Amino acid sequence: xxxxxxxxxxxxxxxxxxxxxxxxxxxxxxxxxxxxxxxxxxxxxxxxxxxxxxxxxxxxxxxxxxxxxxxxxxxxxxxxxxxxxxxxxxxxxxxxxxxxxxxxxxxxxxxxxxxxxxxxxxxxxxxxxxxxxxxxxxxxxxxxxxxxxxxxxxxxxxxxxxxxxxxxxxxxxxxxxxxxxxxxxxxxxxxxxxxxxxxxxxxxxxxxxxxxxxxxxxxxxxxxxxxxxxxxxxxxxxxxxxxxxxxxxxxxxxxxxxxxxxxxxxxxxxxxxxxxxxxxxxxxxxxxxxxxxxxxxxxxxxxxxxxxxxxxxxxxxxxxxxxxxxxxxxxxxxxxxxxxxxxxxxxxxxxxxxxxxxxxxxxxxxxxxxxxxxxxxxxxxxxxxxxxxxxxxxxxxxxxxxx
Amino acid sequence: xxxxxxxxxxxxxxxxxxxxxxxxxxxxxxxxxxxxxxxxxxxxxxxxxxxxxxxxxxxxxxxxxxxxxxxxxxxxxxxxxxxxxxxxxxxxxxxxxxxxxxxxxxxxxxxxxxxxxxxxxxxxxxxxxxxxxxxxxxxxxxxxxxxxxxxxxxxxxxxxxxxxxxxxxxxxxxxxxxxxxxxxxxxxxxxxxxxxxxxxxxxxxxxxxxxxxxxxxxxxxxxxxxxxxxxxxxxxxxxxxxxxxxxxxxxxxxxxxxxxxxxxxxxxxxxxxxxxxxxxxxxxxxxxxxxxxxxxxxxxxxxxxxxxxxxxxxxxxxxxxxxxxxxxxxxxxxxxxxxxxxxxxxxxxxxxxxxxxxxxxxxxxxxxxxxxxxxxxxxxxxxxxxxxxxxxxxxxxxxxxxxxxxxxxxxxxxxxxxxxxxxxxxxxxxxxxxxxxxxxxxxxx
Lengths: 403, 445
Hints:
By secondary structure, chain A is an alpha+beta fold. Chain A has 3 domains: 12-112, Orthogonal Bundle (Butyryl-Coa Dehydrogenase, subunit A, domain 1); 121-235, Butyryl-CoA Dehydrogenase, subunit A, domain 2, CATH 2.40.110.10; 247-395, Butyryl-CoA Dehydrogenase, subunit A, domain 3, CATH 1.20.140. Chain A contains 11 helices and 8 strands. The longest helix of chain A is centred in the middle third of the chain and has 35 residues, at 247-281. Chain A is globular and about 70 Å long. By secondary structure, chain B is α+β, with helices and mostly antiparallel strands. Chain B folds into 3 domains: 10-27 and 37-68 and 86-203, Acyl-CoA dehydrogenase/oxidase, N-terminal domain (Butyryl-Coa Dehydrogenase, subunit A, domain 1, Orthogonal Bundle), CATH 1.10.540; 224-307, Beta Barrel (Butyryl-CoA Dehydrogenase, subunit A, domain 2); 309-437, Butyryl-CoA Dehydrogenase, subunit A, domain 3, CATH 1.20.140.10. Chain B has 14 helices and 10 strands. In chain B, strand 5 and strand 6 form a beta hairpin. Chain B is globular. Classes of the chains: A alpha+beta, B alpha+beta. Chains A and B meet through helix 8, helix 9 and helix 11 of A and helix 10, helix 11 and helix 12 of B.
């Protein structure tokens, strides 16, 4: 039965997340935007609270740790599970502050990777810890198949060597999920992810980046030098299966792209809501029944942005819903990420324009959201990478045909 | 409240509806059957030059079949508990049936229908058999749907427009009138006008809100209804009405004196009511025309919903969702057509789809059409559950207007010069998709 409203059972979660965003994130939003690299200690207590929320419910939490594929349905085989609830939680929290969401202890994208592909033993062992994700290298960004970091088996340990950049929460996390190649001659099939403890002596922090936005979140660069991890630190299968190829590693992304799309949806919504309020103060009412072009240019522009927001929001829910129901969603996940990423930037920048110097100045958060927005069209696969994935799927092309 | 047995009956009847149609389609006799209903003098109409007016057809005589006492209305559905994008079994069956129909029967004749500005009569008849024009009719009056069927209507509109938007408009236009009367008609209007829509001999009918002027706003109508004693007298011009010369019934929007925008039921043949041909860029299979009202006198009983503004606004909103469903279906047709084309077409020694400039355009068609679809489903689903859906309808319309147009343009662009010629359907879709942002009224979910 087609229904695109938020299920009632997730309303308390969304309300809670909204309260956190309003009461915790918004008041410290500007503070940590200005104090880049200082740890938002306010989040420690909050993280425990969210752990509690996750423990106490079977519907997943507000963070990234909850995405794991499940197969049983609630009714008529339809399931609204942790992917959907997580997306809804993230939208609310990023309506508060996306930089702070990314700084939430134990809710990193590394946690999603662990949740998506870890064995039960690994879940047991690494559960309750904060995991960051290290994929990008100075010479390999979107082209993650060509990463140069290597992992060599030596007895019961893997030895990792290489350089990683743009590791979100890399300095603060307990664990870093590092992507490395078991055999560089075997291409993408040999790429595996390894869990490295943050205090591993072979893992050296080089520096923290200074950024355009999401300044509350630390972005770390590392060198891995003869970094030894136990054999059990490898996520998924150690076999180099050239047929399955990148599947194992990429499966994580099918689950995490909707989460990043959700972040973009949250930021876009924040910008739109604030702008609507400001426009109303300027006596511009958004009227849904009068044709857009019969209203003021500002209202018409707002409606255009809100319609893109609506599409991004629904594409994001669709991707999460499919994951909850065990439907392959690689196409829809990339569609959601592409649409939400570009919409978020367009909306946030458009809202600054509509609000003029009020939008551009630091007295309000609109300018900050416009800066934060840009990363959401870049990380977890840029706009262009998403379009490539969508195109390959729609056209039935391999990555060698459509490069 | 209906009993459990009654509800089962509804399910079975709905099921029977689809099966009946599939069965019909299997036998070709449907195509050959001769309609009993008196046809309007088409030849005269088709032969008219642009601007030449003809009197509206005096069609059947409508008589109240029963005395209802109070209006019969479809129930709104229970609030759904879960997010769900799967149509239910019944909807799926109807959807598949209409899809097959659109692919096997509609698409092959679409180019000709567009050129001739005429949807084949037997095609419209077959669509009727499917029940597309009775989805809004309550059970008491012979309808098959117990609950409101906006989502079902959207799925059908989408599937039919995948075949052709112009034919879809022609086929679904009568349903807008039955749905309008079922939602906002008085008991007398329902008893008088709805029964014919549930039989085999469904009247051609049109819901006319749009007026020919720039920046048309359906809430500010220039068609006026003034009181004269017990009667209303209507003056104005309605635009892009489907097959107006053949219509046996109209529902017209007019600014009613002392009330605001309102709906009136009109029977053709009334003095002062005439039609003008109005060919347009697209939707040509629907043989669009203008409906001209010059001092058309109707009795007090012609006013619908007591002239309540909410009813009129809801009508505008439901029409927007309906046009979105057609845009979604046509956008999907573009996507389905360009994929094999760009994969087969080679340039510089390889398929053009190996180039990002081409491939990314296809991605965007896919992304935006999916967004249009979801926004449309959301609006319809809220309508069925009795929730406000004005916002969702407006946003879906905005998307279908803007992205639909871009998709139409990309469809032609991806075929290059071949897209510009009539050998391929993309030029028709380019013209048709522009309609989604122009049309108001005319169709309803």
